[in-house]
Design goal:
single chain; alpha+beta; Jelly Rolls; 2 domains; 5-stranded antiparallel β-sheet; 4-stranded antiparallel β-sheet; 36% strand
Length: 166
C-alpha cells in the first residue's frame, strides 16, 4: 500500500524554501537596521570646540580688552540639563569614567519627591541609577568602558547629567 502525496503546502521542499526566504528577509532587515545606528567614534581625543568672542577695539589701542575663548574640557564626554527625558548621542567611554548628576524635583514636594532615572544601552545596559527625592546630587564611577547611549527619564523641574573621563 502506498501513501498518497501530501498537498503542495505540506511538502518539505516548500516548507524549507519558506524558511530560507524568511531567514533572508530577516537578515536584510537586520543589516539595514544596523546601518542606521550611530557609528562608534574613531579612537583618539574628542574634538575641541573653540568659540572665540571678540570685543570691538576701543580707542586707543592700549585699552583693548583681551580676546576670550571657551574650550570644552577634554574630560567631558557628554552633558545635558533639561526638564524632559533625554537620550545621549553615542558615547565611547574609556575604561574608567563617571556620571555626575543633580536633580531638583520641587514640583513633586507634596509627594515627597519626584522620580529620576538614568539607564543605558549598548555597553551601558547595566547602568541603573534611580532615586525619588526633592533635591539631590551624586556621582558614580564605572570601570567598564565601551560604546552606548545613556537614557535619562525624569518628571522633575530640572536635572543635569554630566559624563566625564576617570
Amino acid at each position: 500500500m502506498q501513501l498518497p502525496n501530501p498537498p503542495w503546502y505540506r511538502r518539505w521542499s516548500v516548507i524549507l524554501a519558506g524558511v530560507i526566504g524568511l531567514a533572508a528577509i530577516t537578515a536584510l532587515l537586520g543589516l539595514r537596521g544596523l546601518q542606521e545606528l550611530d557609528p562608534p567614534p574613531t579612537s583618539g581625543p574628542p574634538p575641541t570646540v573653540v568659540d572665540p568672542t571678540t570685543v570691538p577695539p576701543a580707542s586707543p589701542t592700549s585699552l583693548r580688552q583681551p580676546q576670550t575663548t571657551t574650550t570644552r574640557s577634554p574630560d567631558l564626554l557628554w552633558s545635558k540639563t533639561s526638564s524632559d527625558g533625554a537620550t545621549s548621542p553615542g558615547i565611547n567611554a574609556p575604561p574608567v569614567w563617571r556620571i555626575e548628576w543633580s536633580v531638583d524635583c520641587s514640583n513633586f514636594k507634596k509627594y515627597d519627591g519626584g522620580n529620576f532615572k538614568i539607564t543605558g544601552d549598548g555597553a551601558f545596559e547595566r547602568i541603573d541609577i534611580q532615586l525619588v527625592e526633592i533635591k539631590a546630587s551624586g556621582s558614580r564611577t564605572f570601570t567598564r568602558g565601551g560604546y552606548g547611549h545613556l537614557i535619562v527619564d525624569s518628571v522633575c523641574d530640572r536635572w543635569t547629567v554630566t559624563v566625564l573621563r576617570g
